[in-house]
Input
Amino acid sequence: MTAIPERVVRAIEDGPKPVYVYDPETVRERIGALRAALPAGSLIAYAMKANGHPAVVAAALEAGDGLEVASAGELAAAVDGGAGLVLYSGPAKSDADLRAAVAAGAVLNVESLHELRRLGAVAGPARICLRVNRAHAALPGTHRMTGVPSAFGMGEDDLGEAVRVAARDGHTLLGFHLHAVSNNLDAAAHAAYLRDCAVWGVRAARAHAVPNPIINAGGGLGVDVTGAAEFDLSALRDGLRDVALGDGARLAVEPGRFVAATAGWYAAEVADVKRSHGAWFAVIRGGTHHFRLPASWGYSHPFTVLPAERWPYPFQRPGVSGAAVTVAGEQCNPRDVLARDEPTPRIRAGDTVVFARTGAYGWEVAHHDFLRLPHPAFRIAATG
Ligand SMILES: *Cc1c(COP(=O)(O)O)cnc(C)c1O
Output
């Protein structure tokens, strides 16, 4: 685990806990580093479902080119945040969603022929990309959503008809959307995937007479939330060095996790430390209703202890040193566990437990209102 930056520690200590601290500086750095690894002229649209906090979104807009949204609520937030380029995905957009997207000037990633026909009928001409679930996809591993049955996109055999309908209804067809991957940590494989998207996209654009196509490969760049492995941007860059992007084509990507995961920390106070049937537990004021990822993915999330010297009670402070400690949350529910049997130098009631790499799909996917427990605070790390 890398050390917690001083500005983040200050933000943790600077008010009530539990707290999520987000660091806009990290968001900008991640997007800048990714841009340096992609072909010149590539578009980076941050997928705001990973973390829609206004400060995170603002930082992503400063460093990137726009936002990827997947609901009318996200669309509204993107417009409020001043996004120029908004790419709107989602397989079940309503008529009202389609109208809102056109009114906002968003680019619609159209997910089916039926959606395309509805778009023309209820919302009028739009800027669109066709989301395609390709017949074959070059990505190895278990992360794919393309070349396999899925609820997303249209088949390649629908493309000809889609292009005809788009022309008939006056839409501007900008290119293709091929998002197919989730949490891929293998940068060389991801480069191969992007190259394959580029080759396929240029060929499809030629076949269907789409000028200067945008070939949107979507998100899916991975983050190891335990901090053990890193997505290797130099391997991505090397793998993309001589990518063939003729015909004015531009690559687009929609990273979510990659941008936000390392820009967030979740910190909670230790309420109690106890030994139960030989095992050590630290119980925190917080839990999976704030940070659910370890419980839903079934892993143990590493943590750091920030010691607190203040102990206000006139009796012994519960704690343990040099033990394997399980960090459990405040719910009356045995699944409310964030870390299991983690070797811990020292932990005491009143200390603070900090979980790094919680900036993506952390708060966003947790069951916030279970048990009517309080929500955490949110603070932004101050730079400089
Ligand atoms: C979820 C999603 C993303 C972002 O995925 P990450 O794995 O967080 O990078 C990008 N594009 C679309 C269409 C998505 O649904």
Remarks:
- The domain at 262-380 is CATH 2.40.37.10 (Lyase, Ornithine Decarboxylase; Chain A, domain 1).
- The chain has two domains: 24-260, 262-380.
